[in-house]
Amino acid sequence: MIGLESDLREKYVVLQKLFKDMGSTVVAFSGGIDSTLVLKVAYEALGPHAKAVTAVSPTFPAIELEAVHQLSAEIGVPLQVVETDQLEIDAFVKNDEMRCYHCKTDLYQLLGNIKKDTEARVIVDGTNVDDLKDDRPGITAARALGVRSPLVEAQLGKAEIRALAKALGLSNWDKPAAACLSSRIPRGTLITRVGLSRVEQAEALLFREGVKQVRVRDHEGIARIETSDSEIGLFHDPGRRCRIVREFKRLGFQFVTVDLEGYRPGSTNTMQSSK
Predict the structure, then answer these.
(1) Which of 27, 63, 244, 271 lies 20 to 30 Å (CA to CA) from residue 118?
(2) What is the DSSP track for 165-200?
(3) Which CATH number fits domain 6-167: 3.40.50.620, 3.40.50.300, 3.90.226.10, 3.40.50.2300?
(4) Are 107 and 55 in contact (CB under 8 A)?
C-alpha cells in the first residue's frame, strides 16, 4: 500500500489473512478507530460474512451511536444495533475493579447469541497491543468467552492503526479515544442512570464548545475536566468558561474544575469514592 512502511504493509497482509482464515465473523463495533479498522478489513476479506454489531446501553454515548451508523455506511456494511443494560447487573453497578469484566461479559454473551443465530465462526473485538499494557479486566472476559483480537494477533499498536486507517481512507483515523461513560465515575461510587446522563451531557456541551479530547470525571458533584495540552487554552476565554459553568451547574454539578495534569485514560481507576 502506497505510503506505508514495509513492516506495516506486512502486518496489513497478516490482518487480511487472519480474517480470510476465520471465514465468517461478528465484529464488536463501537465506532472507535480500532474496531472501525477491524470492521473495514474484515469486510474487505469476508464481504457479507462479516457482521457489524453495536450494543447500545446507558453507558454508550448517543453521539457515538451517530458515528457507528455513519462509519458502517462509509464502509458499506449493514449494521445491527442491539440493546442491553449493564445497570441491571448488580456487580457492574457496584463499580469496583472488576466493573469492565462484568460489562464485557454481558456484551460478549449477547454477541455470542448473534454468532449462534448467524452461524458466524468467530467474534472479534478492537483490542490492540497497546491495550495489553493496561489493567483491563474486559480483556479477561473476552478471552474467557473465546473472543479474538485480530489487531493483537497482527501485532498492531495504536500509532500503526491510525496510519493504516488513514491509508485505507477511514474518516475517523484521527478520532480521539473514546470510552464507556462509566469510566468517568470513580471506583466505589455506584453507577446510576442519572450520573451517566450527567457526564454525557457535560461532555456533549464541551464538544459543542470546540473541545475534542475530553473527559468529565464526576467526583460526587465536582466536575473534573480533563483535556489535551493543545486544548486546555480554550478554557481561558471568559465567555466560554461562563457558559460551561452555568450549564454544568444546571446539570447538577456544584463545582467545575479543569485538571492541570490534562487528559489521561483511566485516571479514575486508582481513585476511590470518599463514601
Answers:
(1) 63
(2) HHHTT-TTTTPPP---GGGGS-BTSPP-HHHHHHHH
(3) 3.40.50.620
(4) yes
